[in-house]
Amino acid sequence: MTTIDIAGTPINLAVIIIVVVVKILIIVYVCNRRSKMQKDRYVEDSRFIPLTMVKFLDDMERERPIRFTSEQLRIATENFSILLGSGGFGTVYKGIFSNGTAVAVKVLNGTSDKRIEEQFMAEVSTMGRTHHFNLVRLYGFCFEPSLRALVYEFMINGSLDYHLFKAKKGVILGFEKLHEIALGTARGIAYLHEECPQRIVHYDIKPGNILLDSKLCAKVADFGLAKLCNRDKTYITMTGGRGTPGYAAPELWLALPVTPKCDVYSFGMLLFEIIGRRRNMDVTLGESQQWFPMWAWEKYQKNELKELMRGCAIEAKDEQVVERMVKIALCCVQYRPETRPVMSIVVKMLEGALEVPESSNPFSNLFPGVGETGDSFVRIVWNNANPSNWSSSELVSKPQVVMGTPLMGKYDVTMARE
Ligand SMILES: Nc1ncnc2c1ncn2[C@@H]1O[C@H](COP(=O)(O)OP(=O)(O)OP(=O)(O)O)[C@@H](O)[C@H]1O
Ligand SMILES: [Mg+2]
Q: Omega of the bond prior to 207 within 30 degrees of 0, cis?
């Protein structure tokens, strides 16, 4: 028995050792497998962006706004390294997705400001569902505590102001092209006002918000100021004034009801800048020419538009179309919203399909000497005398701050209130 026991002991030991070794091998195998599986999962994670990009493209084709993560936008913009410009609400960076689609990513200022959030929500819900040849397409957005951004289609030729006011750097635009740009812009705004499912007022029409694609076709950008209003409502009242000084209609500075006609006014101011290929206000010029719209009105009134055109270096072949544009601009900047045409009529007038009516003085209410009787007046508070600060929209709280043009500020003129 003992012998067997003594002899059996090494056998038992060998079995135990074998069992332990097998168990160890099993444990090692399982650990290896787990680690491999984790590795595989990591590989899958790293492929997340290109994989979801396929879905993005699919969504893009179906014209649905896409939600991006901050990481995806960080990769697309190479860590937000290519700056395109900045405005009142954020900074714009160029980005390229893995499939080669170029985008402009507008990173919104601040994170918890309610005003910013409101604008963000308005832009996403309206632009994402609004498509027209003359509107900049919104591909999507990012909404994370660390990043709130809007992702737009990239416009290779940038904004119109660059080409109008920095002629040596930008493309020199001839009048045929400028007329086309004006018409495209008018069509984009007309679509917003009259054709898309929900009526959209832009509130910030200006050369900086007209972008140009590779063929220099105009696309209206930034529906950020848009407030939605139902078709059955004749006007909406804003809780705070908005717009860019120099382009904003009088009703935006005053506590008056706001209608889509405020965009018509801004479009008129834009049209003057297109005609003059200069900013409407230029204090370096002689007094009579400093404020281009007034100069244009005076020349129109005296039947001396040719003189204005000579001053703007307009070629004889373009005179007819430019004369038409001046008359349309004068109609658009009428003081009273109800006397301005709707945008679809502006489109037809620019196309030459409709005659442009004779215009009355758009500035009579702005200058008390020639103002209409019976109006009461409020004093203009000119709080931003430097026209170079005009490029961006800013919130104007009403009615304490009333914006005017520098010329009005210079002459300390008063503003008529209806
Ligand atoms: N989709 C785009 N494609 C190419 N460039 C763009 C695009 N969007 C904006 N940019 C560039 O970024 C600049 C800044 O745009 P942003 O909208 O922030 O400012 P803004 O238009 O000057 O002022 P606001 O805040 O009143 O709109 C533009 O002038 C333009 O040059
Ligand atoms: Mg803009």
A: no
**For the CA of 90, the nearest ligand:** 1
Measured over the CA atoms of residue 110, residue 114, residue 116 and residue 121, the dihedral's sign is positive
- Give the rounded distance of the alpha carbon of 289 from its chain centre: 30
- Does residue 225 line the site of ligand 1, with CB under 6 A? no
The most confident of 10-14, 106-110, 112-116, 410-414, by mean pLDDT: 106-110
CB count in 10 Å sphere of residue 91: 16
Of the candidate ranges 60-74, 249-263, 335-349, the one whose mean pLDDT is the lowest: 60-74
If we measure between CA atoms, which residue out of 126, 124, 112, 119 comes closest to residue 88? 119
Any atom of ligand 1 within 6 Å of the Cβ of 203: no
Q: How far is the CA of 158 from the centre of ligand 1 (A)?
A: 8
Local structure of 384: helix, strand or coil: coil
Reading the block at residue 415, the tokens are: 């503003």
Q: What is the pLDDT of residue 20?
A: 80
Paired tokens of 96: 């390229």
User: Is 266 strand, coil or helix?
Assistant: helix
Residues annotated as part of the active site: 204
209 labeled binding residue: yes
Confidence band, pLDDT 50/70/90 cuts, at residue 119: low
Collect all residues with Cβ–Cβ distance below 8 Å to 309 and sequence separation of at least 6: 319, 322, 323
Query: Distance between CA atoms of 26 and 224, rounded to whole angstroms?
Result: 62
The whole-angstrom separation of Cα 182 and Cα 204 is 16
270: left (phi over 0), alpha (psi -120 to 50) or beta: alpha
- Tell me the C-alpha distance between 404 and 381, whole Å: 7
Cα R_g (the chain), whole angstroms: 31
> Per residue in 302-329, pLDDT tens?
999 999 999 888 999 999 999 999 999 9
Distance CA(237)–CA(35), nearest Å, equals 62
Which residues are CB-contacts of 32 (< 8 A; sequence separation ≥ 6)? Answer: none
* Residue with CA closest to ligand 1 atom 19: 87
Cα 127 from Cα 66, distance rounded (Å): 12
Tell me the CA–centroid distance for residue 137 and ligand 1, in Å. Answer: 13
Q: pLDDT at residue 294 above 60?
A: yes
